[in-house]
Amino acid sequence: MDIIKYIYRYIRNTVLRILALLWGEKIKIPQNAIIISPHPDDEALGCGGLISHLTSKGCNVSIIMLTGGENCGSAKSIDSNLLKETRRNLTKKACSILG
What we know:
The protein has 99 residues and is of the alpha+beta class.
């Protein structure tokens, strides 16, 4: 099932890129942008390229995370406060790399 989702996203994104090239209009870079992420690391994994592109063009990017990521199903044996703090630190590091 995951492979079907991957193939769908790949085809969809490819079609959107081709349409953008054919359309020929340049997208205006906004002065400010907000990225809303369900929990830490989703902003970098899902929008890392966009964030990097926007910041390189002078856009101020703000990131809002809806949770601290402490209720991760795969890390139930880790203390939730430690997990939350670790994820926040990793997010800060990713944000500094992305600009």
